[in-house]
Amino acid sequence: MSAPGQLRPVPRRSTAELIADQLRAAIMYGSLAPGDQLGEAELAGQLGVSRGPLREAMQRLVQEGLLRSERHRGLFVRELTPDDVRDVYVARLAVERTACELVMRGNRGEALARLTPAVDRLAEAAASGDRTAMSDADQEFHRTLVSCSGNSRLERMAQTLLVETRMCLTVMQDVYPEPQELLDEHRRILDAIVEGAEDRLAELIESHMLDTVARLGTGTPAPELDPEA
């Protein structure tokens, strides 16, 4: 591990990675909607790239489960079924609960320093009533929470799950929590970290995820999960 402040090589990102980021964002914000077919020639023109890195980027998203391939037809943005929605949130619960355990046993001071501004941004978005800004701030809080665990694999899993979460919310904005309710939930999570209340934090994360499953109306009862599992 390098010492603080020591210079180290800056990671270079491939064109395919940059294209994949743009495609994820387009899917996340609904510019590429569930069920849309991806036209290779059209996308290459819009992005100003050759087809080689574009194909590589699209295959990455197929592997992540954001695109699906149909033989002889091409690539399509995945459509999320009620079961998919439930699975996304249950998977997020597994990732974020583990991340919270690592945060509570690691540097809670760093988590506080990084999550407090995230809650402040959520408060600003809630005050504005802008649901897109709320969704952005909500996701940034959870992305930061997982990042504070220091586990890069959890971060990678969370990234795909958060894009899928946004796909759920984009088509189900009518059932998104009220601004103050959403803000209060995240403040309670931050308070539990501040106070070192690991059991309460686990309960809050579980409630946050499973209540969302119920709110989104999957038609499937929230699963009974063993907090000791």
Mind explaining what this structure looks like?
By secondary structure, this protein is mainly alpha-helical. Helices cover 66% and strands 4% of the residues. The protein has 9 helices and 3 strands; from the N terminus they run αβααββαααααα. It has a 3-stranded antiparallel beta sheet. A hairpin with a 3-residue loop joins β2 and β3. α1 runs parallel beside α7. 29% of the residues are buried. The C terminus is likely disordered.
Reconstruct the topology from this structure.
Elements: H1 15-28, E1 37-38, H2 40-47, H3 51-64, E2 67-70, E3 74-77, H4 82-104, H5 108-128, H6 131-147, H7 152-170, H8 179-195, H9 198-215
Antiparallel strand pairs: 1-3, 2-3
Summarize the structure.
The chain has nine helices and three strands.
